[in-house]
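Dear U.,

For the methods section draft, I wanted the exact inputs and outputs in one place so we can describe them consistently. I've listed the two proteins in the order they'll appear in the manuscript figures. Please don't edit the token lines directly; just add comments below if something needs changing.

First protein:
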Amino acid sequence: MKLHADLRAGNAIAAHGEGYVVVGERRYERSLIVTPERVIGDWGPADAAGLTAAHLDALLETGCDVLLLGTGRRQVFPPVPLLRGLVERGRSLEPMDTGAACRTFNILLAEGRSVAVGLIV
């Protein structure tokens, strides 16, 4: 699906589909993290079942205020022990399907928010 975004607003997600995400003009076919300032390619899990604390730590290390997680074709909630680790550090994570995560990221990016999204492709 092609998304319409103001591509001047940083690393806007231009499109997504089965097995890919386009950030700006570059296509990614592996899971990645996107922030307004940078893209961390080959981030980690091939699917939501492979999500680990290390993957969530990489999202935390971005320093962004809002953390989103795109879990693939369907919304999958990470296991409670993984989420508990975030809560203990005073943080939260919004899991949603990858398409919704792409759209939400672009909206928050356009608003100038400090947002990071981990996308499972």
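Second protein (the one for the lower panel):
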Amino acid sequence: MNRVSLVGRLTNKPELRHTNNAEVPVARFGLAVTRPFNRDEVDFINIVAWRKQAENVSNYLDKGSLVSVDGRIQTGTYNDKDGNKRYSFDVIADNIQFLETKAQAEQRRQQENNSQGPDPYDFQQNQAENQDLESQDDIYSNMGDSIALDDADID
């Protein structure tokens, strides 16, 4: 079964386009999703919405909007301009729910504009930080004391 459910914030304003032949609306956007056990780590997922749902996300959502996405994973391949084979990974949205009101979104935008900190939804900035973490010799050095488990501990 190919199902995925995500909750996160948009990394950019949805980009609305139309297919060449049927003029079917399609919107693409990035979703920043925090990991459940370490809120400092964020995954960036590409989302694709079609038809009326694509129009709605394009008209009503912006960078930083909180949404829930239910859909399926779709992979593909293509050749880049240099002829190298590339792989794509997208979530095709079946259902997108807006999780904040217009007033909450406006209040959040005002707070973000007043703060001088880094943008938590900036894909390039977070990728650079993740590469810095990956280059460390022991990525588990800050995990704390080890825990020993064996079958006797399980009821």
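Candidate sentences for the figure legend, describing the second protein: The two ends are 31 Å apart (CA to CA). Confidence is low (pLDDT under 50) at residues 133-143.

Thanks,
Y.
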